[in-house]
Write a structure and sequence with these properties.
The longest helix is centred in the N-terminal third of the chain and has 17 residues, at 30-46. With 169 residues, the protein is of the alpha/beta class. The chain is 31% helix and 21% strand. The strands form three sheets. A six-stranded mixed beta sheet has the order 3-6-9-12-14-15. A five-stranded parallel beta sheet has the order 1-4-7-10-13. It contains four helices and 15 strands. The chain has helices at residues 2-15, 22-28, 30-46, 50-64; strands at residues 67-68, 73-74, 79-81, 87-88, 93-94, 99-101, 105-107, 119-120, 125-126, 131-133, 137-138, 143-144, 149-150, 159-161, 166-167. The protein has one domain: 3 Solenoid (UDP N-Acetylglucosamine Acyltransferase, domain 1), CATH 2.160.10.10.
């Protein structure tokens, strides 16, 4: 557990040029705190302590401004910069080394009990206030521009931007 926390702090410090020290990151980064609370909520969810998991996720939302459903699957070294307003839905899958800026939504596009939220593969970067909707896949190392609305899958390595998002590289 402590090794993963050190790994998270190191990842955030490497991605944020404003970070002055590991201690500052540890104490002052709400996106990091939200991810740590999510890990606990996710374990509760998997252990069939669903109500307790939801209560913990709501506490995390209250404290950090980041809402992550306890069933969402989040990889290692994921960073959420500034955090406020990030929403990650129930069936979302976030790979390793993903970086999300504030206001990002990984939302559903149906009310049916199916996979209805995005999958972000490894190394994805999602700009501020981007909205990704539905059971889509954002490929390895892809970039989603700030303010974009993405409703279709994105190829690995591609850069998309706009409303609706289109490939720009």
């Amino acid at each position: 557990m402590f090794g993963r926390m050190r790994e998270d702090v190191r990842a955030m410090a490497e991605r944020d040029p404003a970070a002055k020290s590991a201690l500052e990151v540890f104490l002052c980064y709400p996106g990091l705190h939200a991810l740590w609370m999510h890990r606990l909520a996710h374990q509760l969810w998997r252990g069939n302590w669903r109500l307790l998991a939801r209560v913990l996720s709501q506490l995390a939302r209250f404290l950090t401004g980041v809402e992550i459903h306890p069933a969402a699957r989040i990889g290692r070294r994921v960073t959420i910069d500034h955090g406020m307003g990030v929403v990650i839905g129930e069936t979302a899958i976030v790979g390793e080394d993903v970086h999300l800026y504030h206001g990002v939504t990984l939302g559903g596009a149906t009310n049916e009990p199916v996979k209805r939220h995005p999958t972000l593969e490894d190394g994805v970067l999602v700009g501020a206030n981007a909205t990704l909707l539905g059971d889509i896949t954002i490929g390895d190392e892809a970039t989603v521009g700030a303010g974009s609305v993405v409703t279709d899958s994105v190829e690995p390595g591609a850069t998309v931007a706009g409303v609706p998002a289109r490939r720009v590289d």
